[in-house]
Structure to design on (146 residues):
């Protein structure tokens, strides 16, 4: 009968390799900021908890002031109704443009204000403060696709 002797010179490197493997931080790819979910009252489903609707308010601003340039031919960001929400979060060339945790420092808001980036729209009339506030409020409420 063969006697098996446990070989420490094999075990120690395997244990160290396992520890090294498990301690490595795995890259999950590009970071996508997911908006925080606000508390929802499930007892009353007829109440809209958001003061700004993406489809009714934000997209309306894009339609009136942005899609003349930001359409299918724009190299960075297409803000047409069929693509705008996805472009702002994921597929635009500098996405995400929206930051729900710090709306004042989001790329889209910095462009609207003309801070550190060229002001949008580039030619007057620029967006009024009330239109900028609608976009800001939408981001502060979680930037939902509603």
């Amino acid at each position: 009968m063969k006697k098996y002797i446990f070989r420490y010179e094999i075990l120690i490197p395997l244990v160290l390799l396992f520890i090294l493997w498990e301690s490595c931080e795995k890259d999950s790819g590009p970071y996508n900021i997911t908006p925080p979910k606000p508390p929802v009252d499930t007892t009353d489903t007829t109440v809209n908890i958001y003061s700004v609707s993406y489809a009714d308010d934000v997209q309306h601003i894009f339609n009136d002031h942005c899609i003349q340039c930001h359409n299918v031919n724009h190299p960075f960001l297409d803000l047409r109704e069929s693509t705008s929400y996805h472009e702002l979060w994921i597929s635009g060339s500098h996405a995400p443009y929206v930051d729900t945790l710090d709306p004042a420092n989001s790329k889209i808001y910095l462009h609207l204000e003309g801070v550190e980036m060229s002001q949008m729209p580039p030619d007057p009339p620029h967006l009024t403060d009330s239109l900028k506030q609608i976009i800001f409020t939408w981001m502060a409420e979680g930037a939902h696709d509603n």
Notes: Residues 54-140 form one domain. The mean pLDDT is 81. Residues 8-23 form the longest helix (16 residues). The two ends are 74 Å apart (CA to CA).
